[in-house]
């Protein structure tokens, strides 16, 4: 009897280890993650407006048709990136992701408190060089520290009604994501 219980416990333990290992390694083996899907339709450090979500065909899964979405695929190897995103009347958000899809920062129009969300994105090393500059203070600009040199910035704006989505798309099309001058 004890031998049978020992076999059952061993099988459950081995099954649990295999299950957890598979679940944890699966994201690293995926070939169609968001970064890979967006690479052909976006340029580095440029904003690209995604097509409007329709039920049978979306660029990314689970896109909401009430939102217009713009993407900036950034690369900080040559220096910081400056983002400027106009705010819509209803709701606007900016989210930052690594190439593996890990979200590390987000801000919305309520927190921004302005008509344009403006911020500088940089690595920790680039940030340490900015801190030495006495002319730049935290009140002057919002600085976001990226854990990786490349990733995605997702700007989303909500439309108040279905026929106003084109106005929101034009607003997002005015967003800028470019190498910082400083």
Textual characterization of the structure:
The chain has 182 residues and is an alpha+beta fold. The strands form two sheets. Strands 1-2-8-4-5 form a five-stranded antiparallel β-sheet. Strands 7-6-3-9 form a four-stranded mixed β-sheet. It folds into two domains: 1-30; 34-179, Immunoglobulin-like (Sandwich). 23% of the residues are buried. It contains five helices and nine strands; from the N terminus they run H-H-E-E-E-E-E-H-E-H-E-E-H-E. It has helices at 2-29, 34-38, 109-112, 124-131, 165-173, and strands at residues 47-49, 67-75, 81-86, 91-98, 103-108, 116-122, 142-145, 150-158, 176-179.
Summarize the entry for a quick read.
With 182 residues, the chain is an alpha+beta fold. It has 5 helices and 9 strands; from the N terminus they run ααβββββαβαββαβ. Strands 1-2-8-4-5 form a 5-stranded antiparallel β-sheet. The protein has a 4-stranded mixed β-sheet with strand order 7-6-3-9.
Helical region count?
A: 5
Which percent band covers the strand fraction?
A: 25-35%
Question: Would you identify the CATH architecture of the largest domain?
Answer: Sandwich
The strand line-up of the biggest sheet is 1-2-8-4-5
Q: Report low-confidence residues grouped into runs of 5 or more.
A: none
Give the SSE order as H and E letters.
HHEEEEEHEHEEHE
Count every beta strand, where a strand is a DSSP E run of 2 or more residues: 9
Work out the count of structural domains: 2
Radius of gyration (CA) equals 21 Å
CATH topology of the largest domain: Immunoglobulin-like
Quote the average pLDDT.
85
Structural class: alpha+beta
**Largest sheet report:** 5 strands, antiparallel
Termini separation comes to 74 Å
Q: Which geometry do the CA atoms define?
A: globular
Query: CATH class of the largest domain, anyone?
Result: Mainly Beta
Helix content: 25-40%
């Amino acid at each position: 009897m004890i031998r049978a219980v020992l076999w059952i416990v061993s099988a459950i333990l081995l099954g649990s280890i295999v299950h957890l290992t598979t679940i944890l390694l699966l994201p690293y083996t995926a070939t169609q993650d968001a970064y890979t899907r967006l690479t052909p339709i976006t340029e580095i450090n440029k904003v690209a407006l995604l097509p409007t979500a329709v039920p049978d065909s979306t660029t990314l899964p689970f896109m909401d048709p009430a939102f217009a979405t713009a993407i900036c695929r950034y690369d900080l190897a040559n220096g910081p990136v400056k983002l400027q995103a106009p705010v819509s009347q209803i709701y606007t958000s900016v989210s930052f992701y690594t190439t593996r899809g890990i979200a590390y920062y987000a801000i919305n129009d309520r927190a921004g408190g302005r008509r344009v969300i403006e911020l500088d994105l940089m690595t920790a090393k680039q940030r340490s060089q900015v801190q030495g500059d006495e002319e730049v203070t935290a009140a002057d600009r919002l600085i976001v520290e990226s854990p990786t040199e490349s990733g995605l910035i997702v700007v989303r704006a909500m439309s108040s009604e279905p026929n106003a989505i084109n106005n929101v798309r034009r607003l997002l099309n005015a967003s800028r994501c470019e190498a910082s001058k400083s």
